[in-house]
Amino acid sequence: MTHQIELVHFTGCPHADQARENLRLALRASGAGDAWSEWDLAAPEAPERVRGYGSPTILVDGADVSGDGPEGSELSCRVSGAPSVEAILNALGGTTP
Questions:
Q1: pLDDT in tens, 30-46
Q2: What are the residues facing 8 on neighbouring strands?
Q3: Of 8, 12, 45, 65, whose CB count within 10 A is highest?
Q4: What is the pLDDT along the chain (97 residues), one digit of tens a residue?
Q5: Phi, psi torsion values for 50, nearest 5 degrees
Q6: Which ranges of the chain would DSSP assign to H, the alpha helix?
């Protein structure tokens, strides 16, 4: 099954690199390939539907892998940090490695 996978963040977020790495690991473990879209919340081209999520957020088929939703209209870092490999795998319908 092909999923739409998106990483939502803003430049300078201290957790964005870890989210990228966890996403890479989860996609590799699930066999889902290694392609995803990235949206910088500070960029004007970021779609309205991703605005309001904390950074970093990983969306699989439009749903936040952490089970959260948009948090507001301001740029913010997620206190919980990057989504875990396990949360991403779960959203992809896989199992943890």
A1: 887 778 999 999 999 99
A2: 39, 57
A3: 8
A4: 688 999 999 988 999 999 999 999 999 998 877 789 999 999 999 999 998 899 999 999 999 998 877 776 667 778 788 999 999 999 998 654 4
A5: -100, -10
A6: 16-30, 85-92
Q: What region, left, alpha or beta, does residue 63 occupy, with left being phi > 0 and alpha being psi -120 to 50 degrees?
A: beta
> Is residue 48 exposed (0-12), middle (13-18) or buried (19+ Cβ within 10 Å)?
exposed
Helix, strand, coil share (%) of the chain residues, nearest 5: 25, 20, 55
State how far the Cα of 2 lies from the Cα of 56, in Å rounded to an integer.
Answer: 22
Distances (CA, A) of 15 to 2, 47, 56, 81: 26, 21, 6, 6
Question: Cα 3 vs. chain centroid, distance in angstroms?
Answer: 13
